[in-house]
Amino acid sequence: MIELTEPQVWTLIGVFAAALVGMITFTTQVMWRAITAQFVSFRAEMQAEFSTSRAELAASRAEVSAELAEIRAEIGSLRTEVRHLDRDVQAISRRVFPE
Fold this sequence. Notes:
Blueprint: H1 7-96
């Protein structure tokens, strides 16, 4: 039976420990680089998506502004028509119901 006092046993234990530490280090580095690359690509994709969304939002904002301007113009013309209608009703009431 081999005892733990023999130099070959300690050499093998050292070699296996070094190999284990080396494999753990290598695996950690590879995983870290893969995770970092995923974050970088995710960041680039999100920035592209946000810039597209900003452009779409600006276009929508311009459309809404144009629609609001049109609505305001229509409301202004309705106010004018209501004023004329009020004037016309007063003229009719003066003719129909003289004082």
